[in-house]
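Running this now, will post back.
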Amino acid sequence: SEVDAHGILTARVGVRTEDARWDLSLWAKNLTDEEYFQTLSPGNTGSVGGVVGEPRYVGVTVRTNF
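Update: finished.
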């Protein structure tokens, strides 16, 4: 089995204080919510199993240095 070509858009935007003590970022993976398979494997019975790629998800990261 072949997995079709696909592209995944990942983005991150953030701000940091001048002294780098605080950092705040908003990020997203699979921003376009592309549906894709990571792998496809044919079985002996004619069935095909696959691993579905992750859907879009977003998050926020806050960091501080002491």
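The beta strands are 11-16, 22-29, 37-42, 48-52, 57-64. More later if anyone needs it.
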